[in-house]
Amino acid sequence: MKSTVETLSPTRVKLDVEVTFAELTPHIDAAYKKIAKQVNIPGFRKGHVPAAMIDQRVGRGSVLDEAINSALPEFYSQAAREHDVLVIGRPEVDIKEFVDKEKLVFVVEVDVRPDVKLPDFSKIEITVDDVKVEDKDVEEQLDGLRARFGTLRTVERAAKDGDFVTIDLTARIDGVEVDGGKANEISYEVGSDRMIDGLDAALVGMAIGETKTFTTQLVGQKDDEKGDVEIVVKAVKERELPAADDAFAKLASEFDTIAELRADFVERLGRVKKMEQGTQARDLLLEKLLADLDIPVPEGMVEAEVKDHLEGEGRQEDADHRSEVDGQVRSSLRSDFLLDSIIKSEQVEITEMELTEYLVRTSQRYGMAPEQFAQELQKAGQIGQLVAEVSRAKALAVVLERVKVSDKSGNAINLEELRPKAPEVPAAE
């Protein structure tokens, strides 16, 4: 087999491939065997029909078509490997010449990954936020702990953010109650934004016994179908928090004084904010690389992904949304191309342990057991995507180690110190 490659653009190439008849012969033999099992010819058992009889009854042209269709992917893949072409997307194949018992010539145009010229990472500087624990951060943590020990007290006033209300809800469309659209005696925290769009705004200012109706998008209905929701307030309760004193510190923690509890919050928040410096450095590095590097994307691939996305949402005619999705797709592809180039350049490999840890963390976000989550990924054919995500995250972490990171006050940040340490295993006695 002979092949040549021609670069049509930074993201598209053309492969010219010429295959000898000898190389095509195994595929022709396989085509005869396949057709022999499919045809019924009197006097011959299925699978034992001679080639000459197949040529007579079916036609050699049909056999050659079957052989060529079977052979093209193999020879195309071989040519791509020979020229180190990193193929993405679906190839466009054009058979230029076929001479029976002589040769097959075909041309393939296909999108490829762009060649990303990576910078010297040791010369990159990133500035992250200072670690600063504000008083309001400590008070927020303290109030959250006090809320866990708080009590609810019924009040005779209008509801406001932070109150707990007992309500009845009825959803209607064009005056007709929606199936399953009625619920009574619901306890709800005003301002939590955990139920229906517009509910929190409607509840503010409502008192016991009052009724109000607002219009909103109803869950389970069409995207463009809104309905009316009637609220009846049955009770309004405010949460009373325990005093932030030494007695509360003893009740809610292992500390004897509120001062010690506050100091513990300061220490814990400081550790969290230091960890956030590492996350911020990673995000800023990726943002800088994407801004500084010219990473082209295949237009055909962008169009296909945008089309699939809009069709899935039923919003093909929404020009503004199309533009938004187009930008998101381009950004995502550029990021993937960049990180995949780093993987190749740095020869990044992931271990089974790293893959398992990522799988466990991700499954927790979806509220699923790791085994169940893995099975769902396998059913959806997304194991490869999971491996790619872990590899890309590791690639960015690898090059981040060579970047100079400092905070806004000019202090150097040692990212290695921010990594969570594995627990020490005690030696066996």
What secondary-structure arrangement, pairings included, does this model have?
Blueprint: E1 2-9, E2 12-20, H1 21-36, H2 51-57, H3 60-82, E3 87-99, E4 103-112, E5 125-128, H4 135-148, E6 151-154, E7 164-173, E8 176-189, H5 199-203, E9 211-217, E10 226-240, H6 246-252, H7 258-292, H8 299-313, H9 319-346, H10 352-365, H11 370-379, H12 383-400, E11 404-407, H13 415-418
Parallel strand pairs: 5-11
Antiparallel strand pairs: 1-2, 2-4, 3-4, 6-10, 7-8, 7-10, 9-10
Helix pairs in contact: 1-3, 4-7, 6-7, 8-9, 9-12, 10-11
Structural description of this entry:
The chain has 429 residues and is of the alpha+beta class. It has 3 domains: 111 residues, Alpha-Beta Plaits (2-Layer Sandwich), CATH 3.30.70; 90 residues, Chitinase A, domain 3; 167 residues, Trigger factor, domain 2 (Orthogonal Bundle), CATH 1.10.3120.10. The protein is 46% helix and 23% strand. It contains 13 helices and 11 strands. The strands form 3 sheets. Strands 6, 7, 8, 9 and 10 form a 5-stranded antiparallel sheet that branches. It has a 4-stranded antiparallel sheet with strand order 1-2-4-3. Strands 5-11 form a two-stranded parallel sheet. Strand 1 and strand 2 form a beta hairpin. Helix 1 crosses helix 3.
